[in-house]
Amino acid sequence: MSGIFNFQQVINSIQLGSIYALIAIGYTLVYGIVKLVNFAHGDFYMLGAYVAYFTAMFEISRKDQPNVIIILLISMSTGALVAFLSNRIAYRPLRYKPRLSALITAIGVSLFLEYTSSAMPFIGPSFRPFPDVIQTKQFHIGGAVLTNYQIINVAIAVTLMVVLTYIIKYTRVGMAMRASSQDKDALKLMGVNLEKIIDFTFIIGGSLAGAAGLLAGITYPRINPYMGIIPGLKAFIAAVLGGIGNVTGAMLGAFIIGFAETFGYAINSVIGEGIAYAILIIVLIFLPQGLLGKKTGEKV
Amino acid sequence: MLKVNDLEVSYGAIKALKGITFEVKSGEIVTLIGANGAGKSTTLRTISGLLKAKRGQIFYKGDEITNREPNEIVAMGIVQIPEGRRTFPDLTVRENLELGAWTIKSRKVINDKLEGVYELFPRLKERRGQLAGTLSGGEQQMLAVGRALMAEANLVLLDEPSMGLAPVLVDEIFEVIERINKEGRTILLVEQNAEMALQIANYAYVLEVGNIVFEGEAKTVAQDPKIKAAYLGA
Amino acid sequence: MKITKLFTNNRKLVLFSVIFYVVVDVLHLTGVLNDYWIQITNVALINIILAVSLNLINGFAGQFSIGHMGFAAVGAYTAGTLTTIIWKLGVANSITKYLLFAVALILAGVAAAIVGYLIGLPTLRLRGDYLAIVTLAFGEIIRVIINATGYVGGPRGLLGIPKLSNFTIIFFVTLLSVIIMRNIVFSTIGRALKSIREDEVASELVGVDITRYKVLAFTIGSFFAGIAGALLCHLLQIAHPTQFGFIGSINVLVMVYIGGAGSISGSIVAAVGLTFLSEFLRLGIDNLNKIAPFPVGPEWRMVVYAVLLVAVMLYRTAGIMGGREFGILVPEEEGKNATGSQA
User: Fold this and answer.
1) pLDDT at position C227, please?
2) Chains with ≥3 Cβ pairs under 8 A against B?
3) What is residue C338's predicted lDDT score, i.e. its pLDDT?
4) Is A221 a domain residue?
5) CATH code for position C85
6) How far apart are CA A83 and CA C251, in angstroms?
7) Is residue A287 part of a domain?
8) Does A47 reside within a domain?
């Protein structure tokens, strides 16, 4: 059992956690503002990965060196667009109907995105290897191997998280987003167009998920249309762990899950696969408001 | 400035407002008094667009605004200080005020207004970095008023500003109301505390279970024996 | 609920069903309906049990369980393991065979019910969206455990299950299950569930033991799901973890919501309709593939499903039946005016 708690695992955990964090933020923002678990969120991540794939392949076919930043922007835009459309087409009409309908619809949107992608002849249901976008370079630190991929992965993720936190904390829109989870009517009385704020929330969440998709693409060997299901679920668990609706909590929860899973797999694969679910159940039973959430009883 | 015509509002099958008609003249303080459940809050919420009217019209400066979206109505200059303050508890005092200025684009104007509110409510300036949820009831009421002043408000709707406040604070709040009225804003005040309301108002309407049953100059209404008996604890 | 009373109290329904059974059986025996169609009918019937049992939890008790196939998995593996073991010891004649199957079915249901009870208990206080994720997580946990248990075949699945299910058995088990669940819905339990669904706080104030009824709904629902799972694996002769994963659960969910939560008739209509639709789509896609210049993948079937689901939610949120029942499904004691809205 020696060597489980080693630096390599720490590196892997941080990298996994950073990807989960980008996805989890989107879940928590959307839930905070419209109280919807957007099942399709993991699929924005998947689409981000595929768009990155095609862009990279295109550039490679033209003998160009794929530019990660350009691809990143394209992935983010894709995620943002799909999220925006999902909201407008499927979720907005159900805004004032029972939440269950919106939830079922979210499942429907998720299935639609997955299977339509899978049915497209140029995508297909099977795994595709992601092209080498950057020349791999390895660094050896303290017995562990750190690839430049991982550094880029974490660097981009952290940058996005910092930008997002800035938006939430210091911009007017961010303020409106925060206020919307506290008192929607009062916000309307300030002259805020709530639907526009909701649009914006989806756009931000979707773009982060798209970015995560690209990062997953360059860091992990393969992509497939169903790659969003499990990471989406785990990212949601991370958001719940941190306190649903709380962005800092989502990031915290994501890294905790990242660590738990990486170290879990090092012990054995059943633990690795199941530990996120176990954490979810424990949290919901013993600490339903999450680590950073507020305890709210149900008002009669 | 504001004309409400035969307004009917229902919550499902329950008729909250059964067809009320009243008017608020520019520059005046008009009050709508009545007991709990009379329909006072409903009236304000409908004017602000949070509720839809079943029948009737609302006119502001000659334009019909019935059933428009809340953010449009605020942009036109009608600002409401809702019942129970409704400040954003997890935002700081400053952020609450800044949100109030949502409809204003110019940073300079916002900063000026901020200074104005701090002048009016020095206690808010002291606590500007604090979370609104940690303020006392009176301070939250000040914040709610300050927040409403951050917008370009020509007509200010107040929903039971005295509720839950100690008498000293009630006096303070009503002083503020008079002050902002003198600065040129028209006020529509909805209150259970008829005594205070009638003291500062120019004109009054009495609302009972969805109907306007009495109206007149505030002084006259305050003298009326039936009103005195019902609402002024005479 | 004595068995005979069960049938006499529901004369119309039983009569109708028996006639239907006889008709289909005759058509099968005379070769008009070949094995292929009977197989689909079998699957449709099993789906009826799954849909109605999920409806009990989601529609009538107002919970939001989306890991329903996890219970079916428990039932399938329980019964499957039992029969495969006993089979290896060699069994004599038909009577013992079917007696064994009956026992296996009941044990399957009980095992699933126990799991349902254990899951229902701690998850009670969770609201809609959280409950959904937890049931999903539990469904996944069940799948992970099965995958890791080499004894029952692990990722390769449990193979060589004897083919004990046939049209007759499946039909009558389905009929029995529907009647029992229908009776529950129209009984005191059903009324308690309805009041919980409408307003939990009010129900509590009136003295309804919310805990007890929610757990009861989960337990009963999972019992029948377990039976359905057992029937299924003895039809296909295999139990495999992927059959009982997320997608399987979604399939059942789609049936419940397209048919209309809170309507048994809706679940039946949707289960049958979607099973056959699914098959027609598969055939259609196969045929399309023969004439189309580009490959048409089987995924398009699910795309149609997904669009259907979203469309129903957007345009007819209450589902096909809108929460109402066919007259024939309403117990005769309830009287003529019970065909009104259930929702």
Assistant:
1) 94
2) A
3) 41
4) yes
5) 1.10.3470
6) 24
7) no
8) yes
